Amino acid sequence: MSGGFVPVYRRRPSALHAARAGAGAGFCLALALVGVVYEHPLVLLAALVAVVAAALAADVGGELRRAARLAVPLALLVAAINPIVSQQGQTVLVRGWEILGRRFDVTLEALAYGGVAALRLLVVVFALALLSAAVDPDELLRLFRRVSYRSALTAALATRLVPVLARDASRMSDAARCRPQPPGRSAVARAALAGALDRAVDVAASLEVRGYARARRPARTRRPWSRHDLRLATVALALVTVAIAARALGAGSFTPYPRLELSAGPAEALLCAALPALALAPFAGRSARLGVAHA
């Protein structure tokens, strides 16, 4: 799994790992919200710095690099495609070619908006990668157990079976290459799919024998909030409030077409400074390092 793209959760001594899953997920999703709400390049850069800083503070920088193997090439692809497919903008940088009577030009505005779209993608993917690497997936699924316990079980089994099915497909591919006349990729894919269906039937039969078909909603369990839960929940609420309030007040406005227009003033400077500061707030101070190993 070391060469994969998906960050893997491992328990580490950090405030984010020690907090309950709801607070940790809220913190990561609040960071992702900035990438969804804003298009201003400076705000997006500040959000990207905030996510990376939070990942380093939580000691999951290696997992973030794993996600970057997929996110960075995809972001570069988005940034490269937009200037080609979008013909909007007034500042023509490159006179392109003509196909079927239509001219394809590269404009500064389309190039800038492609970069903005790439930044938004990086912010959202890195924030979700932080969620995957620092929030316990089993505890996160337990949050939905009382709402839909069968769906939570299905999601938990799917999460656990994905790497197993990937290993099965890899072994089938290796075995196929060892044959004198290797079968085509479609044959290997059909064999892998058939194996996945067979495994799914076996798992369903095992669950039915163990009585999971008669599952009932579990009793509510109450767990006291720790200092890390309160810190992360407070910061998540502050991030959401700052992002939405600043956007409602007009801060971070960006208009790519027909001419580039972006706001740059004290409001944007405060917003760019607030995002990394809030992202690092749960990890600051001596109290953030107390109890992280056993919380």
Describe the structure.
The longest helix has 29 residues, at 149-177. The mean pLDDT is 83. The protein is mainly α and 295 residues long. The strands form three sheets. The chain has a two-stranded antiparallel sheet. The protein has a two-stranded antiparallel ribbon with strand order 2-3. The two termini are 27 Å apart. The chain has two domains: 15-142 and 227-289, no CATH class; 149-214, no CATH class. Helix 3 (41-57) runs parallel beside helix 10 (266-280) and helix 9 (227-248) packs antiparallel against helix 10. 63% of the residues lie in helices and 4% in strands.
Summarize the structure.
The chain has 10 helices and 6 strands. With 295 residues, the protein is mainly alpha-helical.
Please give a handful of descriptors for the protein shown.
two-stranded antiparallel ribbon; 2 domains; two-stranded antiparallel sheet; 295 residues; single chain
How many E strands? 6
H/E element order: HHHHEEEEHHHHHEEH
Task: Order the strands across the largest sheet as they lie in space.
Answer: 1-4
Uncertain stretches of 5 or more adjacent residues? none
Structural class: mainly alpha
Query: N- to C-terminal separation?
Result: 27 Å
What's the number of structural domains?
2
Question: Which range best describes the helical content: under 10%, 10-25%, 25-40%, 40-55%, 55-70% or over 70%?
Answer: 55-70%
